[in-house]
Amino acid sequence: MLDPVTTSEGLAVVHLFCGRTPDTDNDAVISAVKTAQADDVQVVTAAILGHKAELCFMALAADGWALRDFQTALVNAGLVVVDSFVWIT
Fold it and tell me: Kind and range of the H or E element at 67?
């Protein structure tokens, strides 16, 4: 098991801007969000209009690995991350 990646104060935050692919599994995307939430990750979703992305996920967690697991689950669900950034709040 990996050691937690935490900060002395605040939370780690990731913004994931995603596009759908022909292989996107909607149920798997929903499952990824629910699994993250069960792991104490706060997830905010938004549909966006633009030429690069269709969906945005903002996730906040005390452990950075939980955010990485969430990103991996979204990619495994068939989404493609077209842009992202991480910050500490």
Answer: helix 64-76
